[in-house]
Amino acid sequence: MSARNIGRFWEWGRKIICVGRNYADHAIELKNAIPSEPVLFLKPPSAYVREGSPILVPFYTSNLHHEVELGVVIGKAGTAIPQSSAMDHVAGYVLCLDMTARDVQDECKSKGLPWTLAKAFNTSCPISDFIPKEKIPDPGSINLWLKVNDIMKQSGSTSQMIFSIPYLINYISEIITLEEGDLILTGTPKGVSSVQEQDELQAGIDGIVTMTFKVDRKS
């Protein structure tokens, strides 16, 4: 471990690795096949946004969606990490939103192009405060939820994930070395929907954390 403060990993962590379609019901709602191996994409650290700052709608989208996710914060680097010791590399967790320009993503998918414009823009990764590992003894069995303007839109358990956290850590680290301060977004349950300027998003992990973000458009 270095002297850097893992509780503020977003200030210095080098990458955000996201897992798509890791809940079968969400894959189905977007008319995607249920994957036989993880679907990965990246966000840059400039995607982070914290409570008190708004989620900014990119100028090029008219269909911005919320996706609530459990984020896994890496505390110990490794390559080809075995599943059996994968959790030793976890420092803690955060609640995350994977904000997605769905119209842009659909267009990219239809053309066989990467999803970067749909997923990696500034403020596309709102996060909660850091949650120490011991606060979530079983990350494979927690409830995530998200409300838009106080209306429940997403509610699901991490027990519904297709690929477990140890599996994802092993799979990702075989391809991309995981470093201290990296964040893995583990996928979203069903119920994604569009948000508009001035909407208020509230999200939580039952009994652990809540967070609130306003949606705005860059002036």
TrEMBL record:
The enzyme's E.C. designation: 3.7.1.5, 4.1.1.112, 5.3.2.2
UniProt key word Metal-binding: yes
Residue span, Fumarylacetoacetase-like C-terminal domain: 15-215
Keywords in alphabetical order: Metal-binding
Reactions catalysed according to its record: 3-fumarylpyruvate + H2O = fumarate + pyruvate + H(+); oxaloacetate + H(+) = pyruvate + CO2; acetylpyruvate + H2O = acetate + pyruvate + H(+); oxaloacetate = enol-oxaloacetate
UniProt cross-references to PANTHER family, sorted A to Z: ACYLPYRUVASE, ACYLPYRUVASE FAHD1, MITOCHONDRIAL
Family the UniProt entry places it in: Belongs to the FAH family.
Name of the protein this chain belongs to: Oxaloacetate tautomerase FAHD1, mitochondrial
